[in-house]
Amino acid sequence: MENKLEKKKYSNKLEILRFVIVGVIATAVDLIIKIIINTAIGDSFNNLNNGDSLKTFIGYTCGFLIGVVVNYLLSTFWVFKNVKDDKESKSLKGVLLFLLFSVLGFLIGLGITYGLGYLILSTSNINIIDFQLFPTDGSSIWEYFVDCLSNLNFWCYIIVFIIQTLIVLVWNYLTRKKFIYKAPKQD
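User: That's the sequence. What structure does it adopt?
Assistant: Structure tokens below.
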């Protein structure tokens, strides 16, 4: 009995590790797609507040959707191996639930980012909402990154990003495990 419990704990740890790896891969795909699309349509990534938000929206939406597809495929075929009904998780219902929970996770992350961003701004002069992630002054990405290392806005942005990423990671894992990739009942 104890051996079964140890095996289950080990299996769950591996599942969570695979889930985190897939999250990193899907996030990288999301970011790369955003960069490619926004570069192709001439967006500097810093246009949310200067009237060119449609281009930014297109890049973010495409990146998100392709990231979700990658995440779904890797989650279905690699992360969640101990599933009660494999066919249900691969059904249209499973795909739609995956997309719904992903969109809700995205909105939760957005709410956390903007909520904490405005809270920080209202209590200090630190502005992560208008923080520009890419250079607009003609400097190279490397020069801009080095400058960011001494910028308090950058570090607050990174801290908020980490907080929202961890919360959304937990949301995504729990909703997928409970509603899409349900484990079989134990004896």
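The chain has a mean pLDDT of 85.
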